[in-house]
Amino acid sequence: MKLATYRDGSRDGQLVLVTSRLEEAVFVSDIAQTLQCALDRWDAVERDLRRRAALLEAGQLAGAFPFQASMCMAPLPRAYQWADGSAYLNHVELVRKARGAAMPAELYSDPLMYQGGSDMLLGPTDDIVFQDASWGIDFEAELALILGDLPAGVSAEAASKGARLAVLVNDVSLRDLIPTELAKGFGFVQSKPASAFSPVAVTLDELGPAWDGERVHLDLAVWRNNEQVGNLRSGEDMHFSFADLASHLCRTRSVCAGTLLGAGTVSNRRAGAGFGCIAEKRMLEILEEGRAATPYLQDGETVRIEAFDSSGHTVFGPIHQKVVVSSCA
Fold first, then answer.
1. Tens of pLDDT along the chain (329 residues)?
2. What is the pTM of this model?
3. Residue 91: which region, alpha, beta or left (left: phi > 0; alpha: psi -120 to 50)?
4. Neighbours of 319 (CB within 10 A)
5. Buried-state track 278-300, b at ≥16 Cβ within 10 A, e below 16
6. Are strands 319-325 and 128-130 parallel, antiparallel or unpaired?
7. Are residues 78 and 120 in contact, defined by beta-carbon separation less than 8 angstroms?
């Protein structure tokens, strides 16, 4: 089952069901007005949504219409929580190595995680708008789960079963603001602006064998302008699973339905995999050449991130954004 949020002039949009190949859609306001409403009452509405989805897939709904990604907000335009982990240790190792820092042993057993802003999340075609390109505008290609209600102290196995949906993310970062913020010892704020999300969110059964209960195994393609810079595999080199991350998040507190849990920038060690963010390429340049030659994103550039299944079909639809640097931002 695939779900999206269409723009309707409100903050939270209107929930639609979408066919597996992202061709047709239908409003389901009689079942749930928004995705958050559906998540709050998931046990009560899931069966009705699945029945409606089956009719849509079979072409038996009179109210169906062609699906348009340009009409989509983020599946959750604002979420109760956005917790982003760092499951791909290759990314962490590269960043630390480039600045001559050792990798602490505890990072192999205790995942990094921060709590980002979730009150205003971007849709898949929304511009990336900032006042100053010198802030170091970067993209980060990653996957995230949307969780149901989970209690404090939940086990990794139970946490995994409490996941409802998967989404694709562009976790926008302002790299040149990060060092000053981290030096304060109190985490990200200004350097982690609104992230962007795929046109649709998908139930985990929709992923078929690409979901093994802990990791999502998809091919992830990343383009900067017209150049493909990433040819990644999301299940490869993922040191911490989504189950690990969810259990870590819930160690001392419960989380509510609609919590977004990210796994961090997808980063593979495989030759030819490329990069899920510009910072990683710059780190390798520093290690190999002594300086970073690749610039961060500039005004007018575009970013495209898309995930494909083993048959080459798009799973979430693409995130396709343009960078806009404007003093009026």
1. 999 999 999 999 999 999 999 999 999 999 999 999 999 999 999 999 999 999 999 999 999 999 999 999 999 999 999 999 999 999 888 877 766 778 888 989 999 999 999 999 999 999 999 999 999 999 999 999 999 999 999 999 899 889 999 999 999 999 999 989 988 989 899 999 999 999 999 999 999 999 999 999 999 999 999 999 999 999 999 999 999 999 999 999 999 999 999 999 999 999 999 999 999 999 999 989 999 999 999 999 999 999 999 999 999 999 999 999 987 76
2. 0.96
3. alpha
4. 29
5. bbbbbbeebeeeeebeeebbeee
6. parallel
7. yes
39 contact partners, CB below 8 Å, separation of at least 6: 146, 148, 164, 257, 258
For the four alpha carbons of 189, 116, 175 and 325, in that order, the dihedral sign comes to: negative
State the Cα–Cα distance between residues 272 and 89, nearest whole angstrom: 18
Residue with tokens 């985490």, as numbered in its chain: 187
Q: Which domains does the chain have, with CATH numbers?
A: 2-70 (no CATH), 76-325 (3.90.850.10)
Q: What is the largest CA-CA distance in the chain?
A: 62
Work out whether the CA dihedral 225, 229, 234, 238 comes out positive or negative.
negative
Q: Where are the alpha helices (DSSP H) in the chain?
A: 35-40, 42-57, 89-98, 156-161, 178-183, 242-249, 278-289
Strand order in the sheet with 219-224: 128-130, 319-325, 302-308, 219-224, 227-233
The residue count for the chain: 329
